[in-house]
Design brief:
Blueprint lengths: L28 E2 L10 H18 L1 E3 L2 H9 L3 E3 L4 E3 L2 H8 L5 E4 L8 E4 L2 E4 L7 E3 L6 E2 L2 H13 L17 H15 L11 H15 L3 H6 L5 E3 L6 E2 L1 H12 L4 E3 L3 E3 L7 H22 L5 E2 L4 E3 L12 H17 L4 E3 L9 H16 L4 E3 L4 E2 L4 E3 H17 L7 H4 L1 H6 L10 H6 L15 H6 L5 H15 L7 H16 L8
Length: 512
């Protein structure tokens, strides 16, 4: 599970067989930046120790009886009348030793495998908003068609490494929705999918469909990681029934959970950066402990996350100095316990404008400089997570591609130092026609997906189109030209038969 692939490296940019296109590889990235620090080592240790004290003295409210029973069996103090669990630090510290420090989430093809450890870097798109928007149809309740369009975009861009919850397909009843979303991910993509953890029946449906699509026995499925889910705590200090069940089910089947407290400073967390991180770290460790009590050694992502709110409106704010500091400090806590970890890139902007770009990029920079292993919501997120924008998904790709480019070494061979070119071009001349330039110009630079670098006159002649309108055309072209992934027809038939059977049986209502 922890076999590390050859990470993408690039020296000189080669040309493809046609002789012109620039060859890039944005899979299995390694973060090139030294992880930054907000707090001293002593301060990080103090946050960690205070978080352990929170778990031991204050405890978590855990709503699932099975989860409380597992904690009690491990030696935690359980108050059944209040559903409160106080977890001794020795229980937590033992649990933190058992998850793998590195693991691979398998795709439908080996080149789609995603390797995770401290120091790797992967991107996941916007996940879970109830609305979708594009400039042709406007903001609307999301549908399964919107979900499927997001799957096609994820499959198209290599810098997106795995699927997210994308959008809530509100045109489908929730007891059947997960069949359609899983079907879309397996038929239109070979990247690691997202499986909903909304109670054991939905989780097992997701596992079964993925096992069928990948052609696996149950033993093979449980022996490797094939998908992820997100487990959100209910800050402050509560784990609800479906989230607790998800922590257990995913551990038992060897699939990684992305443990994600979502603490907004001044709302469901203390108003200070250090206080919010203390709560978030405590909740993350408590959830990971439950996960490991169910199956020691199950893969799991650590996630401590906090951002601030607009104290005038109470709405979440992103890309702020406080959020960037939280991101960086979360990385310090992740390195303290040694686990691969998640962070996020986000914005509170309502449209794909300068605010949206600025907040998303600042948020993403915080995660990158923190040494984050998996950056969620990195493409398409708007409105604090209430809307997926298809145009923003595309404009965010240029940002993510830039981060991916920075992950690759910059060549400095004798040829790259260009002494012969410097000798060829006389003082006051130019390098446009130099032999060194002519050999390299087609592959030397990153070519943007959306950006228009033409001068004002040319841009005006082309219709004075802004980035959002250009992104809309790209989004539509990618979606319209998408092809299903090649799957054995027998697997597709078995998948459809499973969905038909489960639908006839009444589906799987979420458990809460």
């Amino acid at each position: 599970m922890n076999d590390e692939p050859k990470l993408a490296r690039r020296g000189r940019r080669p040309r493809d067989a046609a002789g012109g296109a620039r060859v890039v590889n944005y899979r299995n990235l390694r973060n090139p930046f030294t992880p930054q620090r907000v707090f001293s080592d002593d301060q990080i240790q103090s946050i960690h120790e205070t978080s352990l004290r929170v778990l031991e003295e204050l405890g978590l409210r855990v709503l699932l009886p099975e989860a409380r029973a597992r904690f009690k069996q491990a030696g935690a103090l359980v108050d059944e009348s209040a559903n409160m669990v106080r977890i001794g630090r020795e229980i937590v510290e033992r649990a933190l030793l058992t998850p793998p420090r590195a693991f691979t989430v398998r795709g439908g093809a080996p080149e789609r495998d995603a390797f995770f450890a401290l120091g790797t870097l992967a991107f996941q798109p916007c996940g879970g908003p109830p609305h979708a928007t594009d400039i042709a149809r406007g903001r609307r309740p999301a549908t399964i068609a919107d979900f499927t369009d997001a799957v096609k975009l994820i499959q198209h861009y290599d810098v997106i490494h795995m699927h997210a919850a994308n959008v809530e397909a509100q045109d489908l009843p929730i007891h059947l929705r997960h069949y359609a979303t899983m079907r879309a991910q397996t038929l239109w993509s070979d990247k690691p999918p997202f499986v909903y953890a909304r109670g054991n029946p939905q989780t097992m449906d997701g596992f079964a469909m993925l096992r069928i699509a990948r052609g696996l026995t149950w033993e093979q499925f449980k022996a490797d990681a094939w998908c992820t889910t997100v487990i959100n705590t209910n800050s402050p200090r509560q784990i609800d029934i479906p989230m607790a069940q998800g922590l257990i089910d995913f551990a038992l089947y060897g699939q990684p959970c992305v443990v994600t407290p979502f603490c907004l400073m001044g709302a469901m967390a203390p108003v200070t950066v250090a206080g919010a991180l203390t709560l978030s770290h405590a909740e993350a460790m408590g959830a990971i402990t439950l996960n490991q009590l169910a199956n020691p050694g199950a893969p799991v992502f650590y996630g401590a996350f906090a951002s601030n709110v607009d104290m005038k409106s109470g709405a979440p704010a992103f890309g702020t100095p406080e959020e960037v500091k939280c991101n960086i400090a979360s990385g310090q806590l992740a390195r303290l316990i040694g686990l691969p970890w998640r962070c996020a890139a986000a914005t509170a902007a309502n449209v794909n404008d300068a605010q949206a770009a600025h907040e998303t990029e600042m948020s993403c920079w915080g995660a990158v400089l923190a040494g984050c292993s998996l950056i969620m919501h990195a493409a398409g997120w708007l409105e604090g997570g209430l809307t997926l924008s298809f145009e923003k998904f595309i404009t965010d790709i240029d940002m993510l591609n830039t981060f991916a480019e920075l992950c690759h070494a910059t060549p400095a061979t004798d040829a790259d130092l260009a002494f012969e070119a410097l000798k060829e071009v006389q003082p006051g001349g130019h390098f446009f026609g130099a032999a060194h330039t002519m050999e390299r110009y087609q592959t030397a630079f990153y070519e943007p997906v959306v950006a228009d670098w033409s001068n004002f006159g040319t841009w005006t002649e082309r219709g004075s189109r802004d980035a959002t309108s250009r992104a809309h055309d790209i989004y539509r072209r990618v979606v319209d030209e998408a092809k299903p992934v090649p799957l054995d027809p027998a697997r597709v038939e078995e998948l459809e038969a499973y969905v038909a059977k489960r639908t006839e049986e009444g589906g799987a209502p979420p458990v809460s």
